[in-house]
Description:
- The protein is an alpha+beta fold.
- It is built from two helices and three strands; from the N terminus they run H-H-E-E-E.
- Strands 1-2-3 form a three-stranded antiparallel β-sheet.
Amino acid sequence: MNRRPRETDAGGERGSVSLVAAVTIAVIVVLTMGCADIARALVAVGRADTAADASALAAAQELALPSGRTPAEVASDYAALNGATLEECRCEAGTDEAVVTVELPVGPMLLVPGDRTVSAQARAVVASGEAGA
């Protein structure tokens, strides 16, 4: 007896695994791009915090030990050295604190169009020379 193998009706299912794999790969790529964007933004926030801290400390040092420049000029220089722009400096001569705000560009992102910036604020206080006061 010769038996013929049974034919299954799989004609409608052909290629379905390829479609599922393609969709899964596309979702993984989009999620990876989103993670890269979030990482880029978090790095920019850290750099903005660093620029704000350095600018505030430089302005406070200029308040404590004047070198002939304004505290805002010194703060602006330190912000620029850290890749940021000084937006505001409340650090007038004769005061005992410097409060600065800086802005830093995030750079191109993969999923979010347009230019993005982050800002950070820092405060430095000039301590008085009196011990135990």
